[in-house]
Amino acid sequence: MEKTDEIERLRRSDEILRTTILQIGEQSGLPYLQSLVNSLGAAFDSKLAFVGQLSPEDPTKVLVLAHWERDEHLLPQDLIYDLTDTPCEQIACNCLAIYRDDVQEMFPKDEMLREFGYVSYAGAPLTNSRGEVIGLLSLLNDKPFDDIELITSMLKLFASGAGKELERKTAESNLQENEHRLQLIVDLTSDVVWDWDIVNDTISYSDRIYETLGYTVEEMGSQRMTIYSLMHPEDLPEHLAWLDGYLKGSEGGEFSFDLRLQARDGRYRWIHSSGTLIRDEKGEPKRMLGAFTDVSESKEAEVERERLISELEFKNSELERFTYTVSHELRSPLVTLSGFVGILKEDIERKEAEAVKQDCHEIMQAVRKMGTLLDNLLELSRVGRVLDPHEIVPLHELVQESMSLLDARIKNAGIQINIKDALPTISGDRVRWQQVFQNLLENAVKYRCSQNPSIEIGVITGRDRPPTIFVKDNGIGIDPKFHQRVFGLFEKLDPRTEGTGVGLALVQRIIQLQGGRIWLDSPGPGQGCTFYIELPAVEPQPIETV
Question: Do residue 237 and residue 379 come from a single domain?
């Protein structure tokens, strides 16, 4: 008899397993659990079969994930119930519980047992890979169980599968929740989050990068070479050298670096990136994770701060030189005035009319010289304080205007002026730039040679340098040791010539304030001079010869 019962039990077990396998198929998650309780409940003709998950916040509460009912569907979806004073409470303590026909008597405080007429109960704990109880699988019936051994073996078997699936589902849910939280953080932050898969050599970015740099998803792609192509040419070699050394290091560790990336509009954006390196079990670099922030504004502010500090230091130094030079230059006409006032007094006392007349002439000359000096100093001071708005100005027009103002002197001196190249368009204060070219042309006219004087104006362009304008003459030339001196205030290499020595100082000051620079080249006396002006350009203008 016992052998017959065992054979029947094995047959039923096999039948239940086959039916369950067919129902479950390739399912996972909640569909898997639902098919499992459907199969188990039907196999034992139970009134109720269910899978529940212990609440992570309160282990005395159970959330019903899937259930099967034989007759009326009385159990609500997503039911949460208290384990206290119920047969399920034992299962939460990692115990198997079987009550063949006396469950109501054993748990008199469980009102649901009486309400639905349950007399038998069987339950098994669902455990995770660490052996912790995470849920339960239960059968309830309105009649006694007829084969406790079969129910026990099937519960254990099904509980094992349900426990693994519940653990997987929980891990998947936690992963999705973490990914959702991470995505929220990524969406809310102003940083660009990036992930370089070193093994497959692909990079992924958060959506913020498309807003920061202006490129589309397709344009950025996932290839490392794309980001390298956007790096500033000055930054790329240094970054690659740093990366090579960092990856070859024995440890991961945090990192940070600053570099420039070219945005869609062509401008370079300063970015500050930081992150960490992850290595595999063999110690080989596996991936780099990081984030970068657009720090262009702070970098520009830092550059501007350094510029202002340098400018202040330069102005302080310049002020010292200026004070000394001005006091020296103004003293000269004052000495003249003082001397001739004394002489004038003596000549008046002697009643020498012609001498008095000459004395007055010398005094007026000194006054005029002082007036000219003061006017030039005032103009020089105005250069740094009063600037008209920048505008786009064709250099060709400025040169023509300057030549027109000097037309009579140019023709009288017989000077040939040749505009050699297509001159660029410049950006800046038009009035000040005209002062520059008028001063340079006046200088070339003043120090011209006696035979076939000429002036040449052109532009030098290069791939890696801004356009450089030159004004070249074949005049008297300047000894190389005086090349820097000519830009000094009140510097006159030939004291016999007219002027105050302020012109070239004014020219240099204007060009510096406009963001350019000027320098002089001359092989020596009698070999002419060439003044070079380096500045940005927009477009060339037509060539003309005068």
Answer: no
- In the DSSP assignment, the letter for residue 223 is B
Query: If we measure between CA atoms, which residue out of 399, 430, 433, 423 comes closest to residue 509?
Result: 433
Residues 399 and 545 in one domain: yes
Domain of 199 in residue numbering reads as: 192-294
pLDDT tier, 108 (very low <50, low <70, confident <90, very high otherwise)? very high
Pairing of strands 465-473, 517-521: unpaired
| Three-state DSSP class for residue 172 | helix
Contact status, residue 96 vs residue 124, Cβ threshold 8 Å: yes
CA nearest 41: which of 33, 52, 50, 49? 49
**CA–CA separation, 425 and 437 (whole Å):** 14
pLDDT tens-digit profile of 64-98? 998 988 887 777 777 888 999 999 988 888 888 89
Whether 403 and 513 map to the same domain: the answer is yes
Q: Please give the helix or strand (H or E) that residue 469 lies within, else none.
A: strand 465-473
Decide: pTM greater than 0.90: no
Asked whether residue 29 is domain-assigned, the answer is: yes
The answer to whether position 187 is within a domain reads no
129, pLDDT greater than 80: yes
Of 132, 134, 107, whose CA–CA distance to 120 is shortest? 107
Q: If you write DSSP's letter for every residue of 122-168 in order, what string do you get?
A: EEEEEE-TTS-EEEEEEEEESS--S-HHHHHHHHHHHHHHHHHHHHH
Rg of the chain (C-alpha set): 47
Query: From CA 197, how far away is CA 287, in angstroms rounded?
Result: 5
Question: Is residue 4's pLDDT more than 80?
Answer: no
Contact criterion met (CB below 8 Å) for 382 and 507: no
Give domain status of residue 213, yes or no.
yes
- DSSP characters over 505-525: HHHHHHHHHTT-EEEEE--ST
Domain stop point among 249, 267, 294 = 294
Tell me: do 16 and 157 sit in the same domain: yes
Residues 6+ apart with CB under 8 A from 324: none
54 closest CA partner among 29, 80, 28 = 80
What is the SS3 assignment for 329? helix
